Amino acid sequence: MRLVLISQPGGPEALVPATAPDPVAGPGELLIRVAAAGINRADVGQRQGNYPPPPGAPEWPGLEVSGTIEAIGPAIETASASDSGDGDGTGTGTGTGTPEWQVGDQVCALLAGGGYAELVAVDARLVLPVPAGVDLVEAAGLPEVAATVWSNVFWHAGLQPGETLLVHGGTSGIGTFAIQLATALGSKTIATAGSDAKITFMNDLGAAGVNYRTTDFVEAAKQLTDGRGVDVILDLVGGDYLARNIDALAMNGRIMVIANQSGEASSFQLGALMQKRGRIWATTLRARPIEEKAEIVAGVRRDVWPLVERSMVKPIIDEVFPLDEAADAHRRMDAGGHIGKLLLKV
Q: What percent of the chain has pLDDT over 70?
């Protein structure tokens, strides 16, 4: 199969076309013929040599894909020969006699790596159907952002209707999804970005946009909440934002730190956090145990997919590049001007 390798740690030019033997679906896995792969900041970190893949993951990048099921591996805890009636004991299913997946189904999946390729084998518990009304290629921009936003903002931080969410990096793939999902579920959203065009885009999505280059987001957050502060903060920036996030926090507020794009050390006054009775929770998604990721994916399918199918939340796609032009796609990512997701089409 064709794929994109990292020849050596470095800039976008380190991404080079290559080939490798086709993967095989193992026990409990599905083999997916990839239609498209999403590009994420974690891929950039891996390209730069700062974020190696977890043990057992392919060495080439890619944390999410969409495509069609090419083959079904032996089942673990799903449809068996006794309940499916087909006698071969293969396939993944619901345990009700009806297989969950069939060859040819259109799906998208959360990966630990390996998405920049024509084929990928993935645990069936991390696979989702392409939501009704979503284009197969565009569906590649859903799994990672949906899993990240749902697990951090709603599962861990417990954002409730009527509460206020502050999103840093509001025009990123994660940011655009968080704005839409929080708005759809009845919460107010405030989001930061660095240009007037991005502010306009976020406002159209339903957020109160704040240009961090011209406005202090702490003061803006307080003004927009009548001095109360925000209940949940989704922080992709890190660095000195941590102390400022505490200043912007409401009583009993929660800060979810999911990246440190600033690359800077973070420091804050513990007393300030204690006065707010606040919490800071730093998480990652890629290296979680498979059981935790499966629980997250199940939650996404239950709570998020219905909203996507009703067009209340949708993937925001900036640009789609051919697989062999992954280096150009990463240049676009590095430049920082994109809004939403960048994809690689196979």
A: 92
